[in-house]
Amino acid sequence: MATRTRHPHSPRGKRRWSKHVMETSDALDLKSGMFTQHDPKDIAQSLKASAEHSKRRKSSPFRSAMSMLNFYINRGGRQLPAQQKKHLEDAKDELRALFGRPRRRPGRRAKKRA
Q1: At 99, is the pLDDT very low, low, confident or very high (cuts 50, 70, 90)?
Q2: Distance, CA of 54 to CA of 61 (rounded, Å)
Q3: What are phi and psi of 102, to 5 degrees?
Q4: Nearest CA-CA partner of 66 in 98, 109, 21, 39
Q5: What's the CA gap between 21 and 68, in Å, rounded?
């Protein structure tokens, strides 16, 4: 039976590519601790301000802000506390409202896969 070997320069505890992306991304210049806030409106306003002032983003401010929010939620995965995930999901609707986009319809949350 063959065993799987790891690359010698990337020990399991050191591979934090998502942290590297958050720190060096060309999408936005984010305020520290923004995603840990408890008010979805504050999160959305901070993302909007960062997206509009950033000179490094490649697409529209709305797309950059929503992309960074989705990235953080997806990378948090199972380690993201349920209450914080709810705040972040609610921040998506607040972000849509701030940019004048239609809000998500009630009951259209992402379905869990079996």
Answers
A1: very high
A2: 8
A3: -65, 140
A4: 98
A5: 10
d(CA 30, CA 54): 9
Distance CA 29, CA 40 (A): 19
Higher pLDDT among residues 81 and 26, named by residue:
81
Residues in the chain: 114
* 8-state DSSP, 45: H
Cβ-proximal residues to 33 (8 Å cutoff; 6+ apart), any chain: none
Task: Please tell me the predicted confidence (pLDDT) of residue 72.
Answer: 87
pLDDT at residue number 62: 93
CA distance 68 to 48: 11
What is the DSSP code (8-state) at residue 56? S
Residue at token pair 């992306």? 21
Q: Is 64 exposed, middle or buried (0-12, 13-18, 19+ CB in 10 A)?
A: buried
